[in-house]
Amino acid sequence: MGKFERSWLLFKSSISVIARNKQLLLFPVIISVLSVVIMLFFVAPAALWPTGHSYASLEHWQTIGSTFFSVSNGAGTHGSRITYSPAFDRQAGLAQPRPQVRLHPL
Description:
Blueprint: H1 3-20, H2 26-47, H3 58-68, E1 69-73, E2 80-84, H4 87-92
Antiparallel strand pairs: 1-2
């Protein structure tokens, strides 16, 4: 018995277990819905960032993209690179200067 045949038998037996016990589908559905809700908490503030354009317009999304990411022509062999831009942190007041740590000799 090959790998594909064993996988197919396992798949068929899993489907038959789910067909006999419909309540087993409840947990994956609830977890999927809650995962989407949690993801929206992280994505919504960035997507709803006020840019002065309509949320449905391309200009809004280009402004959001340029706020978070910048494209630079890399000097390496891979060409251009897309990197995280801390401009969002500065606009939101999140970027703070790092404290200077001085070590004193004992």
